[in-house]
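Box 3.1 A note on notation
Throughout this textbook, protein chains are presented in two layers. The first layer is the amino acid sequence; the second is a token string describing backbone geometry. Keep the layers aligned when reading.
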Amino acid sequence: MIAEEPPESVNHVKDKTMFRDTRQPLRFFSLLTFPAGRGTVTLMPLILFLLTAVMVSCGYRFAGTENNLPPDIHSIAIPVFENKTSESGIENCFTDDFIYEFTRSKYLAIVKKKESDVVLTGIITGIRSASIAHTPEVVSAEERVVITIDVELQRTDNGEILWCNRSFVEKQDYAVETDKLKTEANKKAAIQVLSRRAAQKIHNSIFQSF
């Protein structure tokens, strides 16, 4: 009597071609997991992270960002912003955020002014706060801080202004507390948020405007 062959299981592969069976990719991904305590740990996030790191190191950038500056522009200097407001210290916050954005994108090298192809200068020209919400007791519960800055990108070889915005405005809401110190802390935090947002917007606008 000839014994019947057992039915082919999911794990049975007659040839050595790994992806011949449409179910094989699932087995491939299962190899990327291993037991850890009561559950399993997958290597997929680590692999995706490593692939992303390789792409960035090779100069790849994701959709939504592009460098449209003249091809001979390779470096930028960002001096400390000038602060014409009564809010001391915010010039350092803005300068740091702009330097971070240009460093992160890697389009231009951050260098000293005498070594740069272009210089980005910024002037904080105004800051104000206004009430935007009130409690039933007619006490301001939330305020909005509004900051205006003048930003300019200029070539160092011939003084040509490549990009400018003389009245860029950014705003951010913050909570008003009964404790004045807490309110002031909330305001400072709001300024930090709008500073980062302003740096992102202006950075993107510069590279996409040409």
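Strands lie at 33-36, 39-42, 75-77, 82-83, 109-110, 118-134, 140-155, 161-175. Residues 24-56 form one domain.
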